C-alpha cells in the first residue's frame, strides 16, 4: 500500500477531498495542490458502501467532471 501510495497519490498535505454524491452514492472530488498552494481538480472517487464498510472505490481521472458534481474549479 505504501509503495502504491508513493507512486500514485499526492504526498501528505498535497491533496484535499471534498464530499459530493454520485448516483446516490458517497463520492469525493480529489484536488491536488499545485503552484502557490492552489488546489486543482484531479479525480472523482465514488465509493460503493456495504454493511461491512467500503467495498470498492472507482476513480474517474477527468477534471472536466467536477462541475457535473457541483465542485469548484480550484480551491485556494
Describe this structure in words.
By secondary structure, the protein is mostly beta strands. Helix content is 9%, strand content 49%. The protein contains one helix and four strands, in the order αββββ. It has one helix at residues 2-8; strands at residues 15-22, 25-33, 39-50, 53-60. It has a four-stranded antiparallel sheet, with no helix packed on it. A hairpin with a 5-residue loop joins strand 2 (25-33) and strand 3 (39-50).
- How many β-strands, per DSSP? 4
Shape: globular
Hey, roughly how much beta strand do the residues contain?
over 45%
How large is the count of helical segments?
Answer: 1
Order of helices and strands: HEEEE
Helix content: under 10%
Query: How would you characterize the largest beta sheet?
Result: 4 strands, antiparallel
Mean pLDDT, all residues: 88
Gyration radius from CA atoms, angstroms: 13 Å
Given as residue ranges, the uncertain stretches (5+ residues, pLDDT < 50) are none
- Strand arrangement in the largest pleated sheet: 1-2-3-4
Structural class: mainly beta
What is the end-to-end distance? 29 Å
Amino acid at each position: 500500500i505504501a509503495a502504491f501510495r508513493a507512486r500514485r497519490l499526492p504526498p501528505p498535505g498535497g491533496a484535499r477531498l471534498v464530499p459530493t454524491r454520485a448516483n446516490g452514492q458517497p463520492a469525493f472530488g480529489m484536488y491536488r495542490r499545485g503552484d502557490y498552494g492552489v488546489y486543482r481538480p484531479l479525480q472523482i472517487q465514488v465509493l460503493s458502501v456495504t454493511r461491512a464498510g467500503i467495498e470498492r472505490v472507482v476513480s474517474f481521472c477527468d477534471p472536466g467532471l467536477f462541475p457535473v458534481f457541483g465542485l469548484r474549479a480550484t480551491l485556494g
